[in-house]
Amino acid sequence: MKSFISTLSILFLLSLLLLPGCASLSSSQTETIEGNLAIAPLPATMQAGSGFLVIDEKMKILTNIKDFPHFDPFKVFNELFQRKSGYALPYLHDKSALKDSSHLIKVTLVYNNYNIESYNLKIKSSGILIVAGSELGVFYAMQTLRQIMRLDAVPDSKGSQRHWSIPLVDISDAPRFTYRGMHLDVCRHFMPVEFVKKYIDLLAYYKMNYFHWHLTDDQGWRIEIKKYPKLQEVAAYRDETLIGRFGEKPPRYDGTRYGGYYTQEEIKDVVSYASDRAVTIIPEIEMPGHCLAALAAYPELACSAGPFKTATTWGVFKDVFCPEDSTFVFLENVLDEVLTLFPSRYIHIGGDEVVKTSWEQSDFCKDLMKKEGLNNSKELQSYFIQRIEKYLNAKGKTIIGWDEILEGGIAPNATIMSWRGIQGGIDAAKAGHDAIMTPGGYCYFDHYQGDRETEPLAIGGFTPLDKVYAYDPVPAELSEAEARHILGAQGNLWTEYIDSPEKAEYMAYPRAIALAEVLWTPVDRKNWDEFSVRLKQHLDRLDGMGVHYAKK
Ligand code: TNX
């Protein structure tokens, strides 16, 4: 197959030879397999064949994997395919039962420790061959096929399209980074389960593999914890919500009680939906700050005197968890329930923007600092995080914290999420810790993406699509060995000013597609002009999926 060069490619090569200054040739001027198939993120290598393969009712999946006890890499594709075509592709395990060996999607696993997400997808006129490093690679091959077939752009219309003609191609692919994430804050504004699932499906479509679910904050506690019913009765609700921009004088409120939470049953359902899509959900339980909603329910967890109310406005609040034994008992009990719901190896424990005045004024904290030999309140924050880390490590979990957890000494095994620029990531990697890059200037999708005058209200900043696309998560300051600690990056969607699923999609897309390409595609294959051409086709597909993306 590799020896086939399509007419298109020949034309393209000829045009390269004939045109001086061909380096500036953009794919909008000439047709390429990249532009034709419009796969995003762009695969590592693609070679066009000539001709087409027809997928029809005769097609079957033949695989050497007997059952998929943990993860069926065809399930998502097949469900979608059935909706669009009216039939599903059957699985076969035994080739001998076959009369002819065409009309097959033939899958071979070669367990590849080096890159379990890698795959080779060959579309030939006789059928499809997939060779992959693991079921994950097969899953990504099927997502690529889903894109090549433009399955999502076709209306569901009772499975009317029975035959699919797709161009021949040979794709070898593997991600650049192992952590490809998107975050969603459901505390400032609650997002319904159906929307969370749609958000996760899009992550899978763009080969992202982590969903960071920001579940607790000052303005609402969104995860059911059976041991502490007041988290549901009190912390999940606020009396009202700020209208307009934070800081406007006088502040205006809507006077409407607001809230909601996910039951444990709903969470299990979302976790299993995500795991079918090779997406790991990392829950975030914020501590010791951003916890006013929890303090409203259980004021005894603060060093300062209550009563407290779930926040109705944005910003940073001075009341935080007190590092007393009883607080740790509460948090450990909460985490015990969290661990039963989320199989993720990573648990995010927050750690950002902790106002420490209540600790500095507390006799209990002063005594504790003396007893533990802590010099200042930043070290007390590290004591807090390290105590929680020890608890979670003993249960086989790794903590992720926002970069403030570096300040008073990093917890021994923590992974850092670098959000206040890239310095946190640099410091973590130099100290031999893993880091995930989420710098505000590139990865905050709550920022404006266009002209403030015409865009809907956003928190501030300016992070347009091309800036996201240009981001390189590996800081230049790092040596090659240190750079291996940069696991990847994540787009963050804080929802102070995002009060509906439609607006969440508007802020996330298409910027999340640009980030997906930053995280997956080899850096020397990235090209903004060429991406812009492919993106146009993706906007059509997003239309097909009913995504309310930002149109320029
Ligand atoms: C800072 S980013 C926060 C969030 C806000 C966000 C708004 C981070 C770790 N903390 O609580 O929502 O800014 O952009």
UniProtKB/TrEMBL annotation:
UniProt-annotated catalytic positions: E353
Keyword match Transferase: no
GO cellular component terms, semicolon-separated: membrane
Record carries keyword Transferase: no
The protein, known as: beta-N-acetylhexosaminidase
Gene Ontology BP annotations: carbohydrate metabolic process; glycosaminoglycan metabolic process
A single GO molecular function term of this UniProt record: beta-N-acetylhexosaminidase activity
Keywords, ordered alphabetically: Glycosidase, Hydrolase
